[in-house]
User: Fold these one by one.
Assistant:
Number 1:
Amino acid sequence: MNHFQDLYRYRELIDAHLEEELPELDSKSRTLLEAMRYTLGAKGKRIRPFLLLLTCESAGGDVKEAVPYACAVEFIHAYSLIHDDLPAMDDDDLRRGEPTNHKVFGEGMAILAGDGLLSAAFEVFHKDYLIYLDRPEQLKRRIRAGAEIAKGCGCRGMVAGQASDLEAEGLVVSPDLLDYIHLGKTAALIRAAICAGAYLGGADEPDIRHFSDYGENLGLAFQIADDILDVTAETEVLGKTAGKDEKAHKATYPSVHGLEAARERLLELTTRAADAVERTSVNDGYKDQFTDLARALAHREH
Amino acid sequence: MNHFQDLYRYRELIDAHLEEELPELDSKSRTLLEAMRYTLGAKGKRIRPFLLLLTCESAGGDVKEAVPYACAVEFIHAYSLIHDDLPAMDDDDLRRGEPTNHKVFGEGMAILAGDGLLSAAFEVFHKDYLIYLDRPEQLKRRIRAGAEIAKGCGCRGMVAGQASDLEAEGLVVSPDLLDYIHLGKTAALIRAAICAGAYLGGADEPDIRHFSDYGENLGLAFQIADDILDVTAETEVLGKTAGKDEKAHKATYPSVHGLEAARERLLELTTRAADAVERTSVNDGYKDQFTDLARALAHREH
């Protein structure tokens, strides 16, 4: 797991830039900014930006130039957490061991903080496009990266997954629908972050496809690990309310297939992710990092 | 008012493309798509897309090529209405004479429909950028248009205005803060739509500035007209609950300055909008259309 430690240099890079990349708000919007910052705060695992930067670097790109995209992906992730925790959605009071956004700022401001973070991501992309307006080759990579993320977070990706998840509450869910939910609500943005990193790093089309496979398998594994943790972990370790899924009659892998099948599938997906990354043309050191990361995420404790 | 009639050709063009521009959703996301479509439905005035297309055409652009942007702006407007009507925000049951989105689809799905529409707008932009990837000059115009809209709808624009509006409820609001709220929640997206149209049409920088002034004055006038209507109109004519602002102790121009001062300011803003458009280099026929449109919006009955 030595390679996994390497990723902490990205964590500092991301944390150092996260607030800087937020649009500069008027002092009259102080509460909005505080609400946006609150969920962006230091306790996030920064997995999506990690993955974006690692993929970019492994493909030969300059990590520093990808930082705005990494931050924007974290904005989108934070927005999704805020909206997901709302009473009308998952109704969660606790996130990363702290009160959820709407518990601190009220529901209205929390909705707007989410809206603000999502919009901020696209402001960041466009600010970057404007900088590269006269460098066509670099601009193309950036637009392709932005397009991946726009698709991944939207109504064919993350929002679709959330909507199906919400509709499925309390219903008997087919394995097919469960995969659709997981692909949307979790894998879509993870996959998009990875593909965006690949584009930014200048990866060729075959590598983009392999990274896309890696991201999809990793994303599904990540969600199944999350579902398993909800059943097996304590609230204190988890930092959010454990056992919520069952209580809310949520469609989860353990509830549809059983805990053992969930663990088997997790193993299978981690292997598939490793296989996909093996097919890319990146060097072995990076392949190890991607594989270690997939294993670490599948076997995490919170 | 003959020129104003001309705009109806745009209305058909917009209505014909609005659904087409929505990303193609999986059948599993039927409810989400229905919720998104519901607020996009036929009763909107389509003012922002109108303005975008008119500005594009007046600057010498091809209206057909600007249609995706016009539709995307309407997606953003629809998202803002859905979130604004939520119980945690303005808590409105009625919009355009119909039940609001969350009344039909529930709060969770309404939040997601809004999120989906906002994301869809940025998917539309990126889809268009990808088409023009090898035509640098056209790509630049498009990115500048997208950047204007991203800024206008975000946490320095519309979301900022909504947040301040929410915070100001029940408080004594200074004229300065009231202007900030109005500039954000209404003028920012209207101004952005107009500037986007100007960029798409190939307007030069001085014209962009004049159009920006026109948009800002028009947007402020539009909001003040809205505030006045809330006091003076009947629910039936308005299509949404009249008298809501006063009941919710909202900061409005009439509540801060009185009804007569509101009417005077409306006149002043309409004149300023007309003056701004007069300074552009577009031909007189278009100038008349912009001026007529400003007057019509200021004196509308719903």
Number 2:
Amino acid sequence: MANKHNLSEQIVLHGHIIDSLILPRVMDTVMDLGGDFDVTEIRVGRHKREQSFARMKIFASDEAQMSRILTALQSFGAEVENGSDVRTEPAPTDGALPDDFYSTTNLPTQIRLNGRWLDVAGTEMDLVVVVDRERGTAVCRPIADVRAGDQVTVGHEGIRVIPMEREREQEVFSFMRSAVSSERPNSLAISAVARQMRQTREGGGKILFVVGPAIIHSGAGPYLARLIRGGYVQALYGGNAIAVHDVESQLLGTSLGVNLKTGLPVPGGHRNHMQAINTIRRAGSLRAAVEQGILRSGVMYEAIANQVDMVLAGSVRDDGPLPDVVTDMMEAQRRMRAGLAGVEMAIMMATMLHSIATGNILPAHVKVVIVDINPSTVTKLADRGTFQAVGLVTDAELFLRELVEELDLPE
Amino acid sequence: MANKHNLSEQIVLHGHIIDSLILPRVMDTVMDLGGDFDVTEIRVGRHKREQSFARMKIFASDEAQMSRILTALQSFGAEVENGSDVRTEPAPTDGALPDDFYSTTNLPTQIRLNGRWLDVAGTEMDLVVVVDRERGTAVCRPIADVRAGDQVTVGHEGIRVIPMEREREQEVFSFMRSAVSSERPNSLAISAVARQMRQTREGGGKILFVVGPAIIHSGAGPYLARLIRGGYVQALYGGNAIAVHDVESQLLGTSLGVNLKTGLPVPGGHRNHMQAINTIRRAGSLRAAVEQGILRSGVMYEAIANQVDMVLAGSVRDDGPLPDVVTDMMEAQRRMRAGLAGVEMAIMMATMLHSIATGNILPAHVKVVIVDINPSTVTKLADRGTFQAVGLVTDAELFLRELVEELDLPE
Amino acid sequence: MANKHNLSEQIVLHGHIIDSLILPRVMDTVMDLGGDFDVTEIRVGRHKREQSFARMKIFASDEAQMSRILTALQSFGAEVENGSDVRTEPAPTDGALPDDFYSTTNLPTQIRLNGRWLDVAGTEMDLVVVVDRERGTAVCRPIADVRAGDQVTVGHEGIRVIPMEREREQEVFSFMRSAVSSERPNSLAISAVARQMRQTREGGGKILFVVGPAIIHSGAGPYLARLIRGGYVQALYGGNAIAVHDVESQLLGTSLGVNLKTGLPVPGGHRNHMQAINTIRRAGSLRAAVEQGILRSGVMYEAIANQVDMVLAGSVRDDGPLPDVVTDMMEAQRRMRAGLAGVEMAIMMATMLHSIATGNILPAHVKVVIVDINPSTVTKLADRGTFQAVGLVTDAELFLRELVEELDLPE
Amino acid sequence: MANKHNLSEQIVLHGHIIDSLILPRVMDTVMDLGGDFDVTEIRVGRHKREQSFARMKIFASDEAQMSRILTALQSFGAEVENGSDVRTEPAPTDGALPDDFYSTTNLPTQIRLNGRWLDVAGTEMDLVVVVDRERGTAVCRPIADVRAGDQVTVGHEGIRVIPMEREREQEVFSFMRSAVSSERPNSLAISAVARQMRQTREGGGKILFVVGPAIIHSGAGPYLARLIRGGYVQALYGGNAIAVHDVESQLLGTSLGVNLKTGLPVPGGHRNHMQAINTIRRAGSLRAAVEQGILRSGVMYEAIANQVDMVLAGSVRDDGPLPDVVTDMMEAQRRMRAGLAGVEMAIMMATMLHSIATGNILPAHVKVVIVDINPSTVTKLADRGTFQAVGLVTDAELFLRELVEELDLPE
């Protein structure tokens, strides 16, 4: 086998590489990709606060295999020890990339330029790094925003990511990390979420809520409105439906024709949905409806009255839609990206579409809470990427009600 | 076609047969079974309080078909108008039935004996009616309890069931009747359940709780204990697991090794489960553990202290089990049946096995509430038979917490 | 109570109003809305092929209540017997409606203009009817497409819908109509779907597939490709993800980095997703990639090669997206609407978003099959509106594999 | 902190302790339990075939804490290096244990007796080890079977478990190990299961099927019958329901009253269920019904005709039950345990109750496949204990159909 693997590279790993499972994963990955390794040096922290260090020789049989291995190891924080600078190639046309482009993770990333490590701005999953060699800057950019001639980083040399390490102590979220389950004490989880929200706000971080229409159907609208008034919502992402249902509930007392006081469908009430849309369209927009005194309460009202950074991203199933809904998806993504500055915590409730969309653009350090009655949705969202995500399988209404109580918010 | 259907029988239908969808279902059923019908007389209630009446001629091509049709129509309350008495045949051996046995529904049932309609005692699904002609009595009996020579009703003549009619007004449950959905305002539903519980207790009816182990895991044990202390639980059915978890939580602070204060698994804590079992086995029983002062709080403690009619029915997956668990299934069913006297309302939470077992033996007039985080479970349970069942897709802990608040129960 | 209800209107109901549960629903609705009724005439079909007829007086206490009742009854096919023409009012501005606008169902609808009943073109749910009195035409239109001054129908007079009646015999779908369940013989259902597909194609109807990305992940892509080649797919609606995964699977053998031959994730393979996007963006479009010989097989290839009417409607979670994806939602809806002409059957698989979007714009006569592994999704979709929808809770791959076998399609 | 931890013990770890994540877990556990550690020696395998070794000093502040830590570490294969023999104490009464009893895992376990390591027979989860010092034997025993005076192992000294190590190469199941998902290519998984079944049979291992009633409802009965005839089922565990449905389907063509040819419910067909039960009860048993020629086909027939080791374990929801059903749960567990000898592979389908019951008593080396349409069920089962379990979220019927094809079994 030795003669098959005639190429080698040296990599180093730092930090809690045993405790954080990085070393085993690196070994796994090399073997899964058909390579081999030699651990040439290892220093294991003798007790819990000490860091570990490993130096490994990686063997591969050809360049393509070596490239695949090194690409995979990079996401664990492995650094190739040959001291090369990052390589770049120009984008061939607008909105397209050179073949060997480097695709980012959502972890903090650095590139080596002129022998020095440089932070990449705006790290986010599945983007590319565009380098401005003159200014000495590097930024993440979506493929659609790349312009012909942009210098895009390629290959794997001179690039490193800083893996997340597990915080052990005072880890508010730690107990929720285990497998998603509907049989856990959710009250404890809700207390933990409330504590994290307080901590985030005290530290000046912003909290983002990503919400689906079931919030309104389930009667949880008033709790979300109180969270906004209470200063716990700096950004709000959703779609046309939650806005329409909220308006319908405020103006007509129903949500999709179901009376929210009695829970009974109002016969013929499906019309209320269209009537709510029409009212806002006639007013001009949600903001105009607030200013004209038409909309005086509810989630939309509070979001507007409290200067929440709101993005209503449309979808192909929308009725109407409301004039405030961004119907172009590229524009919607741009606005959602723009709204993330300063966000330290994100709570995603009862929406798969908008939650995935937000998850795609969140940096890894944002603490994410996913709440849904459907365990598949929670699992699907919580499993994506290297997030600090915790999932709660529970009822949105009861969750928000208890959260509001925990945060001691007035009605 | 007329000559194919050379047999006919006359049936009558009374009550809200149009409003309660009985007439359409009768028509449907006759056609689905290949028969035909003539509506010979119909009187439709001119407004909502008036009853309707229909007389129909049913056609079939042979006896077997006619028998199938009449059997099916009986469950809608159709009465064959030929004035015959019920027929009976003796059971051939212990625990077995004559071929043409009549299988009961869970609706009130009457048989005609010597020309007079007689109530059948203990109506329950899928049983048989055993007639004592000397005493002039008729009782429902499970197949296993039938003895050789018992007179078992056969065929379809001289038997009628009284279908449930929809109560329209002040129907506490009505709004929950529609399809099971996780997107409804559960708070409204919980209020309605609380009102129904109050009403049931005020009328002297008993309330049965059927509960699974997730009650304890999810931290809802204390709320259930409060409901028992508050007098809202007269019967409690469950299995070994809920009892063991409850004991473990009271003695060791964990449920299956998960600390209920922190939500974190206690390393090595899986042993706590066996330790709880051993403690009760050493004491002799749950009641003995209460009397010896070993068990001083929790769901089991309260149930014993408050003389709740408790049945812990075993299952093949049980560890231990506790000495109080009934390990023979026939005996467990007998005890569960015996505990149903006076039960007017049943709340089934987080257990499919025990809920189905209870559902099998409940008469149709008992109001049933099914609570589970899994919509499939709720649908499966709510869809069985002709129940007055309503389903809530929600979190057991948040449900019980809110129920306790609605009922204003002290800690 | 009589003196409370001082307004009355006469309505008539025709057809299988008892058998199709229309009469009971009408009675229910009137009472639920606080009105009252008198059945003044009723003729019940004496046997199964005869139609029934009922004339009822509806009582209400004020105009608003009467309006609510009549609006609700209209969707059951009730016709107000006062002989009035439809009323219209001009739209106040572009994209907005007069207050009392009539909101459509997806059932065939007629309006009375100059005393004659006129078909409304393009019936679809939640639209409005715009009348051209000069030309004597009436068309359905989405609110966003209404222009200031358009004559929009208002109120409830002179409007009637033709309710769907249950076909009893030879009803291919009938057995699947009952509650969604994962415990049914899906093979039977798949045979029925195949028969319906054959029947639809023989009658010249088009079949629409609405598909999500799990089709590719689950390895079902080749079966869908065979259905297209076999002439069973005239229209294909989906999003960016299914197209990207399909391209990735054809060019790189993976779907989101998972090798479709081995089922194993390829380490570092998340990059393949972006590489597939980049390849198509460099080619210019999917069609260009086909023409340049880059894309030679797969679902997208077959759809383009076989002139399938394809709409890829974007969403806010899209990566890239591919140049062929319609990123503006209003434009996407327009194209989806345009593609529905001639569609008689729709099969929706593994996508909630695009299925709901399509469901919103389908007329009621289209036969809809919903396939998803998640029962909640199936229930949610199958329960919407008055569709002829049947749901299958099953695995997309095994479903398509068996469908291809049933239809006897070559590889 | 050092002065708090004044107790220490030395432990050693052998094998693929880094690669198999054992070392990180040991570190984690010590810290989670409030202890501390010093890695005094570590030798990391330099490449993939070499084993690693670590020696650690564990610190704790008191005996109770040390005991908790060592108990937890034992399940990872840690061995306390003080050379002590195992300790035992007599059981205080029948069916109860000394306080400090050692609770087993499902991993191979050894105890040190007179300085020599001895294998414990019949390892299974949550049992205790009873030592016969005279004969020098040690056996696992359920608490209920312990007799007063039995020498039960206590504490943590002189006990070690052999942890499972990951096989990397030719690991048929490896690709299914990742998180349960409904979006994977199930065909690949089914091929892998078929290969494993062939391999197991070629090696002389037995295959156990654990099955729920949905097998029959879904029309999959004939495929399971073929698997039995084909020699791929040596043991079959289930309950009353699957047996009754199977008999009903063979004698009357329905399952719970649903015609398996048409998928349509037979009106009045709920009686068929009771009729099937009665037929078998009259015959005396399933075996008697086979011998009398009453039952000539189906799953039960094949199981009896092919000498499959069948256990029908009752439950409290059973109707009837059939005479073959074991209604005492302790007896049912005993029979299930007895049937496991030689079982190398277990396939659990569509039953939570019997799957958990079987999972409780399976040794860790048995390869387990869990098939259910409900992802929660699959997750719940696949997550229990240290199994080699893989889960498939799919349709039981389509799974079995494809499995039969993969195994090339005749009809």
